[in-house]
Give the backbone structure.
Amino acid sequence: MTRLVTTKQELRQARAALDGTVAVVMTMGALHAGHLALVDHARTLADHVILTDFVNPLQFGPEEDFERYPRDLDADLRLVDGLVDLVFAPSVEEMYPMLPPMVTVTVGDLAAGFEGTARPGHFAGVATVVLKLLLLTQPDIAVFGRKDAQQLAIVQRLVGDLDVPVEIAPVPLQREPSGLARSSRNAYLDDAGRQQALALSRLVTAVEAAAPSTTAVLREIEQARERQEVDWEYAAAVDPATFAPIGSDHRGETVVVMTARVQGVRLLDTTVVQLSAP
Ligand code: PAF
């Protein structure tokens, strides 16, 4: 049976009663198959799973979709019933008695480009809530999707730099049968939007086929941007440790990140490739 807890005190008590290892899956709700893949993965790694379901106001800019972000706790509970031990779904007041909080986590250069440029303050908000949720849920393992590649890199640095005793377990990005990366925001797209959005996964496929050649990968990215099938915000190949764009002499693991707007909706996609040739 899955138990819903909404206060920090209830969570602490329920967490203390869990024997064995615990994995946490952090979400902002509007759960879909992509989240279930995180839950499934978490279940293979630990004896118990806690799912957090909280739309974190700190990570939304003033012009962003915090108010209209999809929320349906009942549907979320139905979806994970029996799959997780606890769902922690606090109110904003419960999480942040003082909003904005006076003390937050700052993130360095890793948060400077890409999502960090497009969404100033976003990663400070993410890092702050992730640290709070780690402290509240006290997990052995925290599962994060590879889809938010920059977020994953920042969370890995957060636990390393601040010595948070938790293992971060990355889970591959989940796709719809069409290839579209699963996202709660896909719910905003109509059929035409979904078709148009496939430009992102097509670029992923092209980049994967172009590896291990660095030049070929960079060319695919440039050509996709020139085609303008979607309103690209960015598409780039970056070093996974620094998120600095790679040059043509780069070899080794490379993360390809991309964001485009379709019907006003910001969509992300990403892949990891190994580059070993010019
Ligand atoms: O990836 C998300 O859904 C959010 O950024 C997270 C990690 C749950 C923090 O609010």
User: Anything to note?
Assistant: Residues 26-28, 56, 59, 126, 129-130, 148, 151 surround pantoate (CB under 6 Å). Residues 3-171 form a domain with the Rossmann fold fold (CATH 3.40.50.620). Residues 224 and 262 are 15 Å apart (CA to CA).
